[in-house]
Design a protein that fits this description.
88 residues, mainly beta, two-stranded antiparallel ribbon, 2 strands, 32% strand, ZF_HD_homeobox_Cys/His_dimer, zinc ion binding, zinc, zinc-finger, DNA-binding transcription factor activity
Length: 88
């Protein structure tokens, strides 16, 4: 699992407007299908696709591999936008 650390340095009174947005994706399945026999085998599913609509129990099940969404690696993309205004 990759860990990312983001450091944002901000000068005092340099930003007038700051906004941030996060986008969450669930990528490859990491469920070990051979754990009960002491081995390691994954199914090769590359991206989570919900089986049902938002708010249903099927929304947490992958249509491709049938695993729960928690078995898929979570990626969070965060974008921070700062509008600069020069000091008066």
């Amino acid at each position: 699992m990759k860990k990312r650390q983001v450091v944002i340095k901000q000068r005092k009174n340099s930003c007038t407007t700051t906004s941030s947005s996060s986008k969450v994706r669930y990528v490859e399945c990491q469920k070990n299908h051979a754990a009960n026999i002491g081995g390691y085998a994954v199914d090769g599913c590359r991206e989570f696709m919900a089986s049902g609509g938002e708010g249903t129990n099927d929304a947490l099940t992958c249509a491709a591999c049938g695993c729960h969404r928690n078995f898929h690696r979570r990626e969070v993309e965060t974008e921070v936008v700062c509008a600069y205004s020069p000091p008066n």
